[in-house]
Design goal:
Elements: E1 2-6, E2 10-14, E3 23-28, E4 32-38, E5 44-49, E6 54-58, E7 62-64, H1 77-83, H2 101-107, H3 125-135, E8 154-155, E9 164-168, E10 180-188, E11 192-197, E12 205-210, E13 214-219
Antiparallel strand pairs: 1-4, 1-7, 2-3, 4-5, 5-6, 8-13, 9-10, 9-13, 10-11, 11-12
Length: 222
């Protein structure tokens, strides 16, 4: 199986390997797809996505996942679980079904109401972390609030691969010190932290976050 990651913000998927092909859907940045075949001119890749979308798109905006971070033998069990979820994403409202059942499963690992867990458009970064932690046999926070993880386990610094990393985020109404984002630490650059997380551009993927937003690192423990 050849898996590729999308590098474009939005990538059209067509019903034929040509610019004249009808656009039948789209992919978003960091979505993972499987390559099924290559056109005769080697410009177009036929792909299949986890959401069931199948068609042709330009190879220029697809990179092999072989260079992406891989599961290591020493990785924590929750990080292994998280890696296996890469590519899960919210379904467009025009699709049937309109909700990704996997994301709703993440949401049900929290104390959210039934109505909030019935749609994949509910903020789900903390739910994803909860689900991965619980699948590994640990107790999570049961909260859909990203900052709830600041009171979970114990604080560490420097971070280790797989630890939980929490960031600040400005709420939609402009309120500070309430909203946040949470995921699993992979590695870092001088200015950014690479995170495997959910609800990152509406998907499970690996994304860079500004170090200035960092609130803390946590691991299980008293």
């Amino acid at each position: 199986m050849d898996n590729y990651r999308v590098t474009a913000t939005v990538l059209n998927v067509r019903d034929a390997p040509s610019l004249k092909g009808k656009v039948i859907g789209y992919l978003t940045r960091d979505q993972i797809v499987e390559k099924l075949s290559i056109s005769g001119d080697e410009y177009w890749y036929e792909i299949s996505s986890l959401g069931g979308l199948k068609g042709w798109c330009s190879h220029k905006f697809l990179v092999t996942t072989s260079n992406d971070p891989v599961i290591l033998t020493e990785d924590s069990p929750w990080l292994v679980v998280a890696f296996q979820e890469l590519g899960q994403k919210e379904f467009p409202d025009t699709q049937t079904p309109a909700e990704n059942p996997r994301i709703m499963e993440y949401l049900r690992s929290t104390s959210l109401s039934a109505s909030m867990t019935a749609t994949d458009e509910t903020d789900w970064c903390s739910a994803f972390v909860n689900w991965c932690i619980e699948k590994s046999g640990y107790e999570g926070t049961d909260s859909a609030r990203a900052r709830s993880w600041l009171n979970w386990g114990k604080s560490i610094n420097p971070p280790v691969r797989g630890c939980i990393v929490i960031f600040s985020r400005v709420c939609p109404n402009g309120v500070l010190n309430i909203c946040g984002h949470v995921g699993f630490y992979i590695r870092e650059t001088p200015t950014h932290i690479e995170v495997l997380g959910g609800n990152q551009a509406d998907a499970v993927n690996i994304t860079l976050y500004d170090r200035e937003r960092l609130l803390g690192y946590r691991v299980p423990g008293p």
